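Severity: low
Component: inverse-folding endpoint
Summary: output formatting inconsistent between runs
Steps to reproduce: submit the following structure tokens with default settings.
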């Protein structure tokens, strides 16, 4: 089968769509790793952590060869990536300043 039709895709004015299951599982495993690391530390609680930065960059491609029928050889490449995930303590709310144009700011703890 190909890409199936889904009702959620109507929101984007499209009839077909899919979900990044493998990437979502990777992000969930990274978050579980962060939670485990925070429980190992004494001064860090997992409930107070917030994801402040996430970045995905392309890594060097893996180049291999696969052997096919009738003596042919084809490329067998992989497309890995580097995932960077930074968590910080939840920022304390900042009181609104005086005047008409008060900007929203976050205070780091």
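Observed output (run 2 of 3):
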């Amino acid at each position: 089968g190909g890409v199936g039709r889904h009702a959620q895709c109507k929101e984007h004015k499209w009839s077909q769509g899919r979900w990044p299951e493998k990437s979502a599982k990777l992000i969930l495993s990274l978050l579980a790793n962060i939670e485990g690391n925070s429980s190992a530390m004494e001064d860090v609680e997992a409930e107070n952590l917030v994801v402040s930065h996430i970045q995905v960059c392309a890594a060097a491609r893996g180049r291999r060869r696969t052997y096919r029928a009738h003596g042919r050889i084809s490329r067998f490449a992989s497309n890995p990536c580097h995932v960077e995930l930074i968590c910080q303590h939840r920022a304390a709310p900042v009181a609104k300043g005086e005047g008409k144009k008060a900007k929203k700011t976050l205070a780091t703890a």
